[in-house]
Amino acid sequence: MKRQYPGEQGSVLVKRFPWKKTFSLRYHAWLLQGLQRVSFWSDKFKQRLSPWGLATIAALLLTLVFGANIKLSSIYQLFALLLALLVLALFTVWFKSFRKVKHGLTIHRKLPALATVGVKSRYMIHIQANTQVSEFMIEERLPTPRIELAQFLNAKEPHEEKRNWYDRHTGYYRLLWLTSRLHGIEVSKHKVKSLQADERISCAVDFMPLRRGYIHLPKLRLRFPEPLGLAYNFSDIEVFDRILILPKAYRLPTDFVWGGQRKFQQGGVAQASHIGDSEEFSHLREYRDGDSLRHIFWASLARLQTPWVKTYQDEYFSRAALILDNDVPQHQELFEEAVSVAAGFAMAEHSQDMLLDLLFVGEQNKAEHMLTGRAIAHNIQMLETLATVAIETGSFPSLSTSVLQQAKAMNGCVLILTTWDEPRQAFVHQLQALAIPLMVLLVCVEDDVIAHKPWLRSLRVGHIQADLDALGTWL
Fold first, then answer.
1. CB–CB of 215/209 below 8 Å?
2. Chain centroid to CA 1
3. Bridge partners, residue 207, by sequence
4. pLDDT score, position 124
5. Which residues of 49-88 are buried (b: 16+ CB within 10 A; e: fewer)?
6. What secondary structure does DSSP assign to 404-452, as a single string?
7. How confident is the model at residue 12 (pLDDT cuts 50, 70, 90)?
């Protein structure tokens, strides 16, 4: 069966591309496969050999070059000694690999509830020795991500343009960066001293979150050095945990005012977050002609044989909508920045008389809605929602329909976009026709900056915080 490559679907699509592009796809597919093999074996060597073991191999290569002529130099003797030590260490590891390493340890993690992208955090590993255990190294073993060719070609390593031609052409460092990005976390290793039976210790492990969302930690690896300290035996322990990483949040200017003016909301705060009449009321009063039957307190009618009516308290507050467009076909970086901008609005200090709606599209193009403020929900819950929002291609029609259905209850609207095309322009005109105070923030690269308007601003990738700081100067 002929192998298919990204961008190549049978002979029909092949004819559409020039032969150079077809050859380039095949070449990069072969290159990616080779780089993944190099990365795999590089990891194997780093896991099996200690720093001293790697230094021994480097010294072996040097003595092999300079001691090749045994008549002119005695360096070959050092080569023989180093080779004997390395072979002995590897033979010890090979011999021990036939039997399972018995670690005799009980291990569990204690993770923080939440962490934030780019903020260094720490968790604890609690270890109990059931028997006497020698010195070992403990580290996380993250699942190997599967990298597709299109993902490899579209990825852009930060400052990759500063690397030399060979590194840019092969893309090895780009592959390492992309693998680390997909792992989503960098975790430090920890060296544990020898433990006696029934001894308990706790290890503090530092980690750096690299992306938002759930990070899965499936197993821990214990590496035990052989007597010479050149190589390791290791044992993997299945200890599954996960941690939710919140998105980075950009800071809004202190003089930035948004959300619109307060207005009367029928049914109060509870009515704002539910469909139908609110169950909250201020007091009961006797029934009067013309009162709605839906407001009758039926329990009093059954008990006292007299109808009473629930009276609602009129409340005035501002209800602002934060709309995140997650229909982003091929711009993962732009979408991540858009989520960070939305997180900044979620974290900003709001008036006590303000409710904040978050609207986006979830799985299966289903419009999602979340309301915070006035003790309904906290902003941390909105951040948790933003941590798991994903790109949904073709979801913008569902989003625009959902927003227009709820437009009557909005006092203000912030729309975060990554594309400024005709459907989105038409959607903005519809909101403006409803006389809703509107602000559009377009997250874009430097080349796609559009002319600013009183209600439209571009946020350039790499300068988003500076562009946000300038918002307060024109409102």
1. yes
2. 37
3. 121, 187
4. 94
5. bbeebeebeeebeebeeebeeeeeeebbebbeebeebbee
6. HHTGGG-SEEEEEES---HHHHHHHHHHHHTT--EEEEEEE-GGG----
7. very low
pLDDT at position 317, please? 54
Contact indicator for 115, 209 with CB cutoff of 8 Å: yes
Q: For the residues 101-121, what does the mean pLDDT come to? A: 86
Average pLDDT, the chain: 81
d(CA 378, CA 349): 11
CATH code, 102-246: 2.60.40.10
Taking alpha carbons only, the member of 461, 367, 362 closest to residue 406 is 367
What percent of the chain has pLDDT above 90? Answer: 25
| H or E element, residue 47 | helix 19-48
Could you please state the CATH topology (level 3) that the domain comprising 316-473 is classified under: Rossmann fold (3.40.50)
Amino acid letter, residue 407:
A
Q: Which residue has the higher pLDDT, 226 or 275?
A: 226
Listed range (9-23, 118-132, 152-166, 291-305) with the worst mean pLDDT: 9-23
Query: Is it the case that residue 438 has pLDDT exceeding 70?
Result: yes
Q: Which residue has the higher pLDDT, 230 or 449?
A: 230
The type of residue at 239 is V
pLDDT at res. 258: 58
Give the predicted TM-score (pTM) of the model: 0.76
Query: Which residues neighbour 378 within 8 Å (Cβ) at sequence distance 6 or greater?
Result: 372
**What are the respective helix, strand and coil percentages of the chain, to the nearest 5?**
40, 25, 35
Please state the rounded mean pLDDT for residues 266-276. Answer: 42
Distance CA 39, CA 33 (A): 10
Number of residues that this document lists for the chain: 475
The domain spans of the chain are 102-246, 278-311, 316-473
Contact 340, 386 (CB under 8 A): no
- Helix, strand or coil, per DSSP, at residue 255: coil
Question: Can you say whether the dihedral through the CA atoms of 103, 106, 110, 115 is positive or negative?
Answer: positive
Exposed/middle/buried for residue 259 (C-beta within 10 Å: 0-12, 13-18, 19+): buried
Bigger pLDDT: 34 or 18?
34
CA nearest to 27, candidates 171, 221, 217, 232: 171
Which amino acid belongs to residue 310?
K
Helix (H) / strand (E) element for 271: namely helix 268-273
